[in-house]
Amino acid sequence: MKKLFLSAALVALTSMVLSAQKPAGVADGGISPELLDKISAAYEDNAYDKAISNALAGTSIATLAINADNAAMIDTHFSDRVRTKGITDQKSSGRCWLFTGLNVLRAKMIDKYGLPGMEFSQSYLFFYDQLEKANLFLQGVIDTRELPFEDRKVDWLFSNPLSDGGQFTGVSNLICKYGVVPAEAMPETYQANNTSQMANLLKLKLREDGLELRKAYAKGSNKNALQKMKVAQLSEIYRMLALCLGEPVKEFEWTRCDKENNIVSRKTYTPKSFYDEFIGEDLENNYVMIMNDPCREYGKVYEIDYDRHVYDGHNWLYINLPVERIKEMAIASIKDNVAMYFSCDVGKFINRSKGVLDIANFDYESLMGVKFGMDKKERVQTHASGSSHAMTLIAVDIVDGEPVKWMVENSWGPASGYKGCLIMTDEWFDEYMFRLVVEKKYVPEDILKMLDQTPEQLPAWDPMFSMEE
Questions:
Q1: Distance CA 323, CA 319 (A)
Q2: pLDDT tens for residues 227-270?
Q3: pTM for the full model?
Q4: What stretches of 211-346 adopt beta strand conformation (E)?
Q5: Which residues pair with 268 in a beta bridge?
Q6: Out of 72, 104, 228, 303, which residue is the most buried by the measure of CB atoms under 10 Å away?
Q7: Could you tell me if 175 and 286 are in contact, meaning their C-beta atoms sit under 8 angstroms apart?
Q8: What is the spatial distance between Cα 240 and Cα 337, in angstroms, rounded to a whole number?
Q9: Does residue 346 contact residue 389 with C-beta atoms inside 8 Å?
């Protein structure tokens, strides 16, 4: 009887221990042996699955999912195309936004002055971009000094102290503040082309600096004292950037040549005077950012909090429109020989060897025997898709009054894709295009009037912008 009693007690005690290990309030939801049997029973392990498994053991999924019915190269003729010259290369960096913005202006300058070719220095503006973003973070830490460290905005700041990504608002704010220089006036460095190590060190230092600012405030330092600390911290960041990228040029000589390489003029410029003479646009007021954000109401204006490059600049602001309206403006701009800043989810259904973006490129459903059924809105809401890369929209092919394909000038070098460009079908455009920056003269009046609205404020951590290029 004693053994039976002790055995029953031991079972009860074990049950209590196991129950105690389960988090309070959590229902049975784990994979039990019985559930595992049911799940595994659904896998037939037939000859077809065995063949697929064997293939997957030594071959990439993308290679096996290539749709043989769509193997032929797409027609490369375009009814309308912007005149551009040269393909740039961002190398191993996230500066597509900067390359794209400067390529839009470069195409205008080459066409206007009949240049044999030219390229703006990305490294010059990238230096100031990183310095300005460092200031944006440190000033943000000062502005949120009274909030607890666990506050969502404070947490977001320390999670995103700096990056080499961005968008067109950053291009316009930086150029209006610092001007531009030709590539030869401040050439690329290894660190400009390979940003990850520099970025990691900058972020590490900035996080340390941000903590020091919060500690100083906790010990009684006022805002003026914190601002003085920030100046010293930015001086260190400036030094790190100068070592990696070179110090920004203040003045330079540039020779302008015609198409036959005959000298037209040779002058000394500052970055601002160079921009004023050869471009001279009011970038902050002459362009409109349009988005196809299926998660929100169309016909409305939205602004993303803290999504800017310059503290005293502008947040990312956009008009949300159906993709059909966006196409109208894109076609009008291309027909007038004006390229546009364009961004999309470039990694989806891309055939890199052909340089084609087409939802028929890969058949993952047949390979895996499952259906992928989310629409564009659902993909954004679940972080499965979002804008990941910026390029320059330069061409459209219109057949019987309707666009059938588009082309962008990329910044992955001339050997990538189709002669340095990517071609996208109109169906792909509908599903994975997100953003276009258009000159106001191509925007219909009813859309321009939407800018009179008070923008709806969105948080910086909104899913639509978590994959920001």
A1: 12
A2: 999 999 999 999 999 999 999 999 999 999 998 999 999 999 99
A3: 0.91
A4: 252-257, 263-269, 287-291, 301-304, 316-320, 340-344
A5: 253
A6: 104
A7: no
A8: 41
A9: yes
* φ and ψ at residue 15, rounded to 5 degrees: -60, -40
Task: Check whether 107 has a pLDDT greater than 80.
Answer: yes
Residue 468 is which amino acid? E
Tell me which residue of 302, 292, 459 sits closest to 375, measured CA to CA. 292
Parallel, antiparallel, or unpaired for β 287-291 and 456-458? unpaired
Residue 396, amino acid: V
Q: Give per-residue pLDDT as tens, 13-31.
A: 445 544 555 555 556 899 9
Question: CB burial class (10 A; 0-12, 13-18, 19+) of residue 147?
Answer: middle
- Helix, strand, or coil (residue 255): strand
State the catalytic residues.
96, 389, 410
Residue 101 backbone dihedrals phi, psi, to 5 degrees: -60, -45
Q: At what angle do helices 168-178 and 96-113 cross, to 10 degrees?
A: 60
Which two three-digit tokens encode residue 362?
């890969």
In sequence order, the β-bridge partners of residue 289 are 437
Q: Tell me how far the alpha carbon of residue 171 is from its chain's centroid.
A: 13
Q: Write down the pLDDT at residue 3.
A: 44
Confidence of residue 4 (pLDDT cuts 50, 70, 90): very low
Q: How far is the CA of 60 from the CAs of 102, 136, 166, in angstroms?
A: 36, 42, 31
